[in-house]
Amino acid sequence: QVQLVESGGGLVQAGGSLRLSCAASGVTFSTNATGWFRQGPGQEREFVAGISRSGNSFYADSVKGRFTISSYNAKNTVFLQMSSLKPADTAVYYCAVRRGIVVPTIDSDYNYWGQGTQVTVSS
Questions:
Q1: In whole angstroms, what separates CA 72 from the centre of its chain?
Q2: In whole angstroms, how far apart are CA 93 and each of 18, 74, 100?
Q3: Are 94 and 8 in contact (CB under 8 A)?
Q4: C-alpha–C-alpha distance, residues 112 and 123, integer Å
Q5: Does 86 score more than 90 pLDDT?
Q6: Has residue 74 got a pLDDT over 90?
């Protein structure tokens, strides 16, 4: 059974930082592509960041320079370090895995999803 569990969400003031974690079972991050998506109030789910099986990272323009995606293969965990947070970053953040090499930015291209973790940034 494949399971992805996100954690680390919470309430933070604008300009603050937060680190999200995605722990996986049944899937090995080091041999797959992993993406972080988010869905804000009244918004559609959008791509935030992704990391390939080789460690290459990709970011949406809206978070580039502020967010960093990384992996800890020994614990089969992927992180999303978020800094300089803005109220516009408020959303439910989801971890997703795609079995393959390519890191797509389309949510329908991913095979497995976590339940999400809420991030709220106050102004």
A1: 14
A2: 12, 23, 22
A3: no
A4: 33
A5: yes
A6: no
